[in-house]
Design goal:
Helices cover 65% and strands 10% of the residues. It has twelve helices and five strands.
Length: 274
């Protein structure tokens, strides 16, 4: 299971988890909107409903190759009778269901695949279901935005690896100690910082003592794209044997040209807005 995320629906906090690479929503939290003190009873009442059992069975047949149809038929026959009761744990154990996951403990609860959770929310409150869908969609949009940012950051990291490998081969003589090696790397990192930002990492830290992170963490989308390109070019210049001063001059000119183009690019502009 991944880290639990929270969304707020009509002042009710609802947990969302990724289970088996699918989104599962806490129906215990959904139940609290209607009956905060007896959510387990509420879920059991929903499960004993014949329509619910049929819905769950069809969902499992569509999504779960290990679902037990014979056991399901036995449950379906009894569903709706006054004497019929069913808990999430019993449903899972008897049928091998995967659409509902129940976990005990302080941070536990009953989670259901989003398809099933929306169905339960509809049974609890149509209004709550609509707001739940809206907030869930908002969460997924935020995750997509974060994914886009992570891709940009990873691109810069990958290119930095290419860049540092070139430094190791071409600039680091044999028998350097760790301190000397770190100085070479820091110097090359600042070549890029000077070319793109006009200052070294230390100069930025001195000017921004209250900020966390580093100068590159403050970069916008256009600067990150430009930085990735500069890292590749610097690696090429190092292989060609250009002196640091010459490389810095070239990289600065390229950075100016690329930033002018990137800042006018519509696609990069949209990334910047995010």
């Amino acid at each position: 299971m991944s880290k639990t995320k929270k969304i707020e629906v009509l002042s009710q906090e609802v947990a969302v988890r990724t289970i088996r690479q699918e989104d599962y929503i806490c129906i215990t939290d959904i139940g609290r909107y209607k009956e905060s003190a007896h959510t387990d009873d509420l879920i059991r009442n929903w499960l004993r409903n014949r329509n619910t059992v049929e819905f769950l069975g069809i969902w499992e047949q569509l999504n779960n190759p290990n679902f037990k149809p014979v056991e399901f038929d036995g449950i379906k026959i009894q569903a709706g009778l006054n004497s019929f009761t069913l808990t999430p744990k019993q449903w899972v154990e008897k049928t091998g269901a995967i659409g509902i996951v129940s976990k005990a403990g302080r941070y536990g609860g009953t989670f259901a695949h989003k398809d099933i959770a929306f169905e339960f929310a509809s049974w609890v409150s149509v209004e709550f279901k609509l707001y739940l869908i809206k907030e869930f969609q908002r969460l997924k949009e935020q995750e997509l935005e974060q994914l886009g940012w992570d891709i940009k950051r990873n691109l810069a990291r990958i290119n930095y690896r290419i860049h540092t490998d070139a430094i190791k081969v071409n600039l680091i003589p044999p028998e350097l100690d760790a301190r000397q090696v770190s100085l070479v790397y820091a110097s090359e990192a600042d070549v890029l910082n000077m070319a793109l930002f006009g200052r070294t990492a230390k100069a930025w830290r001195d000017a921004n003592p209250g900020k966390k992170g580093n100068i590159r963490d403050e970069a916008n989308a256009a600067q990150l794209v430009c930085l990735a390109n500069l890292e590749n070019l610097n690696a090429l210049f190092i292989h060609e044997g250009l002196a640091q001063a010459e490389r810095l001059e070239k990289l600065n000119r390229i950075a100016i040209e690329q930033m002018r183009l990137l800042m006018g690019d519509v696609g990069v502009g949209k990334l910047k807005e995010k």
